[in-house]
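Task 17 of the worksheet. Students: predict the tertiary structure of the chain below and write it out as structure tokens. Keep your answer in the requested format; marks are given for formatting as well as content.
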Amino acid sequence: MTSVPHRKLVVALLLGAALAGCSNEPDPNSHEGKRQALFKQMLRQTEPMSGMLTGRVTPSMGEFMSKADTLAELADQPWQHFPTPGDDPEPNRTKDTVWSDPEGFALAIDDFKTKVADLHAVTSVGIKSLDQAADELRAVQESCKSCHDSYRR
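Model answer:
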């Protein structure tokens, strides 16, 4: 009778070991992995900036400006990691419209870069109040949302 619980334990351990090999994380060296890492870095800039505007995060002009600088450095980087259809075996949330509407996708990228450049232009001269960059940050966020609505599942 004691062998049944041991079998259940062995089966549970084997299933756990098998599932441990299954991961939703992409290969960090794949296009998907690189793209996700860059977008996460961008999010690590915009989220605290947004938090400062809404009062969730203690405002710091220096930190806000530094995050705008970093966002400007990252703005050109993820786009090269959108492979042609079928070249990236990693599961992803990219809609086929990235490839079926390349002109629209290029315009969305350009819009994002422009909005980030506008934010960086305001913050690079120094700000004394977050209100001075609030509209520009919101424009960056709206650009992100617009692109996600059209090109991300």
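Marker's comment: Residues 26-151 form a domain with the Four Helix Bundle (Hemerythrin (Met), subunit A) fold (CATH 1.20.120.10). The mean pLDDT is 87.
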